[in-house]
Amino acid sequence: MKPLIVANWKMNPLNLAQAKRLFNSVKRGLKNIKKAEVVICPPFVFISNFQNLSSNNLKLGAQNLFWEEIGAYTGEISGAMLKNIKCQYVIVGHSERRRYFGENEEMINKKLKAALELKLFPILCVGETQNEREKGETESILKKQIEGALKKISRQKIEKLKLFIAYEPVWAIGTGKPCDFEEAQKMGLVIKKIISKIYNSINFAQKIPILYGGSVNSRNGIGYIKEAGLQGLLVGGASLNAKEFVNLIRKIC
Ligand code: PGA
Fold this sequence. Notes:
By secondary structure, the protein is an alpha/beta fold. The protein has a single domain (about 5-250), classed as TIM Barrel (Alpha-Beta Barrel), CATH 3.20.20.70. It has twelve helices and eight strands. α1 links the parallel β1 (about 5-10) and β2. α7 (about 140-150) crosses α9 (about 180-200). It binds 2-phosphoglycolic acid (PGA). 2-phosphoglycolic acid binds next to β8.
C-alpha cells in the first residue's frame, strides 16, 4: 500500500487566493510522484474550488462532517454534500473537535457510520493528552476512543471500504514536540491489538492502516513510515507551507 499523507489545513488560510496558491503549489510539486497518496483537507468554504483539480495522487478531503444527510441542522455540513463536491476522505474525531466542540464517542460513532455509509474514507483520530499519558492511561484512553467510535460497525462494512486510524497524541499536536518513532510504532501496535480484540481477528486488524500525526515536518516525516513502519501521516502546520509539505512527501517517495 502507498503511504497516505493527509494535509489538515485546519482553519487556514484566511482567503481563497491564498488557498488556491497553496493548493496549486502542492499540486505542481507532486507531479511525477506516484508512490504516495496525498489528501488535502481545506476548510469547507474552499473545497468546491478544488473539486475539479484532484488527480491520481492528489485527493480532496474534509476536516469534519455531520451525520444527517439534509435538513434543519444550522451550521452543519453533511457527508452527502461533501460527496457532491468530490471529497473522498474525511477526518473524524480530531482532538480539536473533541476539545473545543464537545465531540464525544457517541457523536464520533455516528459520524463514522455516516462516512462509511456514503463511501467517504474516514480518518479516525485518536490519542491521549499529556496528563493521561503521565497517569499511565494511554492504552485505556485509546481503547475507549476506538471502541466508542467503532460501536456497532461491522467488520464487513469496514472491509468494503478503507478506514484509516490516525494516532495523534494531543501533547504532540502543534507543540513542536513529536512522538518518537519507537513510541509511535508501539502505539500503532496497541491500536491494532484493540481492533483485533473488537473484531476477534488479528488478520483483520493487520489490514487497518495506521497514520501518525503531531508535529510532523519534512525532517521527521520519513521516520514514521520507514522506521516506525506506519502507513501514513496526518500533517497540520507543515502542510501550510507548500515547499515544506512537498519536501516531506518527496523524502518518503
Ligand atoms: P500539527 O497538527 O502537525 O500542526 O501538529 C497535526 C494535526 O492536528 O492533525
